[in-house]
Amino acid sequence: MSESRTHHPYSPSKLQYLEACPCYENRESNHERTLAGTIAHGVAESGKDDNRLGDDDAAAAAECLDFVEQRRRLMQEDALAVPIIELKETYLPIDDLQFADAQSTTAGYIDHGFISHDGTYAEIFDWKFGFWPVEQADNNLQGLAYCLGTFHRFPKLEKVRFFFKQPHLQTISDVLVSRADVPALYLRIQVVVARARAARTAGNFDTARPMVPVCNFCAHIAKCPKVTEFACRVGAKFHPLVIPENITPTMIHGTRDTVLGLQLAQVVAVWARAFKSQITDRVIRGEADMPPNHVLQQRSDREVVNPEKYKEIALQYVTETEYSAACTVTFGKVEEAIKDKSPRGQKKATIDQFNTQLADSGAVKHGQPYTFLRVVADKKVE
C-alpha cells in the first residue's frame, strides 16, 4: 500500500465524523495501533508477511485474506465463472464534480473487491484493524460512499454488497445497496460534504457539535470552544474552589488565563478518572450492569527493581546496541525489539517467556492489579 498517495480532503473515512460535526478534522497519530493497522493493511493487500507485525495482527491480516478467498469462491460457484474484475486499493470517486479543493464530492481507496462475470454485481471490502467498533455498514458513510464510487465507475452494476471486517473484534457487518438507492445516499453525502466545506471556509467553530467518539479523534479538540464549554461546566461543578463558576471558553483560550486552562485540564482529567473508577467499582460489586460494548479487563503496572538482572535477561533476546536504543525510551521498546527479531508465530510466546524470566529472577515486580472497563464491539455471526 502506498504511503504517499493523495487523500481526498473529505475522504469517505471522515464522512461519519463530518456528519456528526462539520468541523471535524483527522488528528495525526503515531499510536502503535495506527502504525500496526497501516502495516496490516499492507500485508492484506500484498499477501506477504511483514515481520514488524505481532502475531495477533499478522493473524488478523491473514483472516482478511482468507475472507477474500472465501467470497471469491462463493462468487465463482454462483456465477460458474471467474469474476471479470478484481479491485485492490482502487480509487473510486462518487462523481465528476469540480471544486476548488477537490475533484469529486468524495473519493477513496477500497481495500479489495470483485465484479461478477456479467458486470451486474459487486462485493467490496474494508478492513479495520483497531479495537474501536465502527458504525454498522448499513449506516456507515464510508462504506456507502465506496458503494457509490463503485456504481459510478461501473455503470452496468445493479447491486453492490459492502463488508466491514474487524478481525480483532471478531465482527463483520455488511449492506446490500441497489442502484435505486443511489440518489438518496448521494444526497446525504453531498449535504455532509457541503456543510463541512462551509465550516472550513468560515474558519470558525460555530457549527461544531461535540460528541463521543468524534471529539476523541479530532485535531481540534484542544481549541474547539464547544468542547471547552463542556469542560468548563464539568470543572466548575466538580472543583468550584479552583475553577470559577463563570468560566467561559474565551477565558480559557486567552493568553492571560493559560494557568486557569491548565487547572481546568487537570480537574477534568481527575473527574474522568474518578467517574471511570466509580462505574468500574459498581460493576465489579454487582451494583450496576455492564455497560453495552464493554468488558472488564485487569492490568498491573511494572517496575524494574534489578536493572542488571533485567539487562542480563534482555541481552538473551537482543543485541547490546538494540538494548541501549530501546532503553533510552521506554520499557516497551525492549519488548518491541524482541518481538521484531522473533519468528512468525512465536512473537507473543517469546515476549511471555521474556516476562516470565524477568519475574522469576526478581528483575521486575508488578504493582497491585487494577481493573478497568474496555470498549468492545457487539459480536455478529458471519
Mind explaining what this structure looks like?
This protein is an alpha+beta fold and 382 residues long. Among the domains are: 12-202, no CATH class; 302-366, no CATH class. The chain has helices spanning 12-20, 32-46, 55-79, 141-153, 182-202, 225-238, 249-253, 258-284, 307-314, 320-327, 331-341, 347-361, and strands spanning 85-93, 107-115, 121-127, 159-166, 171-178, 294-299, 302-304, 364-366, 370-375. The strands form three sheets. The protein has a five-stranded mixed sheet. A two-stranded antiparallel sheet has the order 6-9. A two-stranded antiparallel ribbon has the order 7-8. β3, α4 (141-153) and β4 form a beta-alpha-beta unit. α1 (12-20) crosses α4 (141-153) and α4 (141-153) packs across α5 (182-202). The protein is globular. It starts with 11 loop residues before the first helix and ends in a 7-residue tail after the last strand.
Q: pLDDT average, as an integer?
A: 85
- What integer value in Å does the Rg equal? 25 Å
Distance between the termini: 27 Å
As a percent range, the share of strand residues is 15-25%
List the helices and strands in order: HHHEEEHEEHHHHEEHHHHEE
Total E-strand runs: 9
User: Largest beta sheet, briefly?
Assistant: 5 strands, mixed
List keywords for this structure.
globular, disordered C terminus, alpha+beta, 12 helices
Structure described in brief:
The chain is an alpha+beta fold and 382 residues long.
List the topology elements.
Layout: H1 12-20, H2 32-46, H3 55-79, E1 85-93, E2 107-115, E3 121-127, H4 141-153, E4 159-166, E5 171-178, H5 182-202, H6 225-238, H7 249-253, H8 258-284, E6 294-299, E7 302-304, H9 307-314, H10 320-327, H11 331-341, H12 347-361, E8 364-366, E9 370-375
Parallel strand pairs: 3-4
Antiparallel strand pairs: 1-2, 2-3, 4-5, 6-9, 7-8
